[in-house]
Model the fold of this input.
Amino acid sequence: MIFITPGRQKIEKAISIFLALAIWQVGAMLLDNSLLLVTPAAVAKRLVSLLAEPDFLSSVGFSLVRIISGFLLALVAGSVLSVIAGRFRPAETLLWPYMTAIKTVPVASFIILCLIWLSSKNLSTFISFLMVLPIIYTNMLQGIKSTDRQLLEMAQLFRAGWLKKMKYIYIPHIKPYLLSACSVSIGLSWKSGIAAEVIGIPDGSIGEKLYEAKVYLSSGDLFAWTIVIVVLCIAFDKLFLLLLKKLFVRLEKS
Done:
């Protein structure tokens, strides 16, 4: 087995980013059409100018609050529903068609349908919630159902309370399932939320900026706002998973 140090990993990632930018630059030069593909330098220049625009922070804040709200609501709802389904088999059966439908129906169909029910202002919250819910639910339920039955029988034998069983049996076992579900669903919440904004076009959102870039054929704006979305998604992913891991550590030590 080859062990790679964190320092080497960072160097390798930096090299891969540099190679990707180099390929992007060469592709833009060969295509020689800024309308189809702008150079990394042009995108960087446009990104800097975006940061200085007065409505930049308001647009970022608009989308950030709504998408994160949708994710957190799905995290809570999915966790609660998985516990109920894991405890009561009829509940799992009743929830199965809804979760299956959410996982299989295209997100665009949900967006168009939800535009009939909701205002475009709250659309990204609901769509993010809807796309994340089955991932959290399915992973949490799988973790609950695969809990060691012998440990549960032992806890019942010693008359351990519900809180002790949750702390010493369920939480340690569910931890990897929940971390994996959150890692996958955070990116999905951003992709689906921004897609909802592009279709719904709520005023003052990142989705509106992307739509305007498409209307005015501004590749520079399109790439610059896409980089903003990627940075926000990665930052939230790292921060949330770090806080979640710290929460698990605190629960284990308490």
Summary: The mean pLDDT is 87. The chain has two domains: 1-32, 42-253. The CA atoms of residues 178 and 241 lie 10 Å apart. The chain has ten helices and no strands.
